[in-house]
């Protein structure tokens, strides 16, 4: 299942700093959209530090390991279950442990 996540690496930055990060992410997340572009119009950053553009936001690190850690931290949300209160969260009462009631079910039982 593919998500709406996209990560773009700059070709020049890849050659200078981030090739190992790109390869590790491609191997760990083969179904995600991880691509290389000739230029991402961040020339000042490109020759300075390892970086990638994740969903149109600049993510950089002091070194390739720092960049990988930041990107990996963001990737955890792909496989995590949706958080309560978000649009993707669905409370399924059939999965509640036996003997426990949801708040909705408890209210229904208290009414005459």
Describe this protein's structure.
The protein has helices spanning 11-28, 43-46, 64-79, 103-110; strands at residues 6-10, 33-37, 51-54, 57-60. The chain is of the alpha+beta class. The protein has a domain at 6-79. A four-stranded mixed sheet has the order 2-1-3-4. Helix 1 (11-28) crosses helix 3. The protein starts with 5 loop residues before the first strand and ends with a helix. The model is unreliable at 100-112 (pLDDT under 50).
Average of per-residue pLDDT values: 80
Shape: elongated
Strand content: 15-25%
Secondary-structure-based class equals alpha+beta
* Distance from first to last alpha carbon: 46 Å
Helix share of residues?
40-55%
Q: Got a strand count?
A: 4
Question: What does this entry show, briefly?
Answer:
By secondary structure, the chain is α+β, with helices and mostly antiparallel strands. The longest helix has 18 residues. The chain has a domain of 74 residues.
